[in-house]
Amino acid sequence: MAIFDDHFRQKALRIAPEVLLEGGDPSQFPASVRSEILKTLCREMADSKHYHYSFDMAAVERFSNSDIEQTVSDLINEYNENSEIRKLLLRMVWQGKLGSCAGQAMSFVKDDTYDNYTRIYAIRAIEGTGTDLYKQQVVEHFVNNADEIDYSIINAVAESFGFKELSVSSLLVLLDRLPNPGEFKTEGLDDTLERLTEKAPLPDLEVFIEKLSVLLVKEPHIERIFCDVSQQHAWLIAIVMKGCERLINNRSTTMLNPIALGILSQCGTYRKYHGRNDSDQPLAEIVPQWCELNERLFWHDVARTRADRDNEVTEVWQISTFGHYCRPELIGFETTLNWIATQSKMRDKRIALSLAYDSYVRDGRNRKSREALKETVSGIPELEGALKNYLKPPPQSEEQKKWRRQERNSKRCQKQREEKRKQQRKDWKIWLSENTDNILDVQGVSEGKFFDSQRYLYNRLMHLDKDRNRCASGNWRDLIEDQSHEVAEAYRTTLPGNIQFIRRKSRPTQKGRISELTVMDLTHQFQLN
Fold it and tell me: With helix as H, strand as E and coil as C, how does 165-222 read?
């Protein structure tokens, strides 16, 4: 109606100019009318101290066009100190591809005194409208400024320019300087990196995964022996796993080199140390399916065990403290016999014999295999003696007892960590069932505040989703079995208030506490029925 009725449009401009931007199809207005609407809306926003309105991205895109480019540019200059107005205008530059405003967007990108969302929208505006030179300048700014360590800003840079203007080497520079984020604090950067690993050309992905290995080994480590993964960069493990999974599925020979084998070994260590067997299950399945990779990873884990333990490892059980992805039991008996004959070092022959004997036992100790073992070691006194001990075991040595104790200690620590996590989930479940009012309280949403109970449920939904997809936060029915019907219904009721306040800056630790949030626009719609 506002398109055809000037009186109605003028009345709407006086009362609620925002409806003219979002309602119907604002692109049908002439350029002069859209400029007038935008100027009026900006004045209204500037005059109101409590103006809160979230514009649908599609509406912004429909409204913004090159024929009001000068108006948008003038308004950016006029209201550059008003955070809400500049964010709206930068979204228009981004969605409308207003190229002449790219220089103004660049000034926001480089000035860290502006709020994060102004800078994020400016980065996206450069991505959508800027010249190649502007894009390269954005990348160079963040690569060359060591103080730029905000996860949300780096996420925007990686999402906009990753593996394009932002090379693998430059991306690694940005990741290297980021502090340990703690759980739930990567501001979406982990999701962005996972998407990059899914879409990147295989040659780029190969380089990316190899270079990430440098970060994963940086000291200090989580634990010297049982989890020699960098404390600072451990959050990158999930991205590395995704990348390795894709490379293995494509039979990339890069996964057979020592660097890639080291990455797989570290991922396995991290997996076992934290007892997280579910999220990385694909690697546990696909590594053994590639026979050559399974065998090379076995020998890599043998060498790694020797380096870490500083001794002569000659038994398969001595490497069992690592949660490696290789499956030694799938290595064929004939292959192990061949290794006994062809390995140049006696300690490696001993490992091969240990593996061959395990295979012989699993196959039922048949006579033919036993004779093959005896024939293979015949004439080699050390191997003959080792085989005799296998067939008629002597009492355990002190070294064996020590290794067995370490193995038991490792399993006990892992069990304790898992029990602690289970108890925390149990405590949350009890508390939430008794405090559903806390889940329903969304009074602080407009101020960017949120209860940890709501954030905890959001993360539980992502955990329950096998793909760890952020869209899973709308699958509220999954909470019925995980929590209770009452808790699930309470969370469902809060969804409309949750939509724009999803990522917060601190992990949920205190069950009734209000946390500061980072506002984030979601492009997906939650299903409420």
Answer: CECHHHHHHHHHHCCCCCCCCCCCHHHHHHHHHHHCCHHHHHHHHHHHHHHHCCCCEE
